[in-house]
Amino acid sequence: MASPPAVLLVCLGNICRSPLAEAALRHAAEAEGLDAEIDSAGTGDWHIGAPPDPRAQAVARANGLDIAHLRGRQVARADFDRFDHIVALDHENLRVLKSLRPAGSRARLSLLLDHVPGRAGEAVADPYFGDDTGFETTWADVTAGAAGLVATLRDR
Ligand code: 4NP
Description:
The chain has one domain (about 5-155): Rossmann fold, CATH 3.40.50. Helix content is about 40%, strand content about 15%. The protein contains five helices and four strands; from the N terminus they run βαβααβαβα. It has helices spanning about 15-30, 55-60, 80, 90-100, 130-155, and strands at about 5-10, 35-40, 85-90, 110. Helix 1 (about 15-30) links the parallel strand 1 (about 5-10) and strand 2. The relative contact order is 0.22. Bound molecules: 4-nitrophenyl phosphate. 4-nitrophenyl phosphate binds next to loops.
């Protein structure tokens, strides 16, 4: 049997959007009985080793998921060998991933919302410098993205 698909979700800091997307995807995959390796990382290095932003932890908790144990890490070149799908939360992070990608990498790059019918090419907005309502929007977007990504992984 083929090994389970490995998916890396990538934002800028790895403390807001991608840990929420990681938790939402893990939850959606479990609910659908889909075995997958799921992780997240940031293109930036400011929050290496840090837990998710308290506002991200709060919106996850309000939706029944605990992300307090997650820790920030930066994308590494080895990720391009380890993961089948590397999924950016916005265009700037997708651009950085394309620039880091080693020649011959088998990882498929996409935007999270490319996996949602009717939302291809859209970004999940950065909520870091905004207020709590931004995190509600982030949660709605990553939940939709997670459902779409499960469908993509099933179809592979
Ligand atoms: P994230 O949000 O990329 O969704 O984790 C951010 C977190 C931190 C910063 C920017 C965005 N920052 O500038 O430190």
